[in-house]
Amino acid sequence: IITKLYTGIQCYSCGMRFTASQTDVYADHLDWHYRQNRSEKDISKKVTHRRWYYSLT
User: Taxonomically, which superkingdom (predicted)?
Assistant: First the structure.
């Protein structure tokens, strides 16, 4: 059971492991991480505009 925990390809982002026969699943998993990271970066680049003065009404 210990060898199964440490064999295979490990994801560098989350630590999930994939067997050698799951390379296509591993590629999809890495693509998912890329999309998640890209969307987080795009959100952080969005500028928030605020008014300098508030209206008194």
Answer: Eukaryota
Asked whether the beta carbons of 9 and 20 are under 8 A apart, the reply is yes
d(CA 37, CA 35): 6
Counting every residue, how long is the chain? 57
**Residue 30 burial (CB < 10 Å; 0-12/13-18/19+)?**
middle
Which strand (E) or helix (H) includes residue 40?
A: helix 23-45
**Backbone phi, then psi, for 17, in 5-degree steps?**
-115, 145
The residue ranges of DSSP E strands in the chain, in sequence order, are 9-10, 17-18
Q: Which residue has the tokens 């560098």?
A: 12
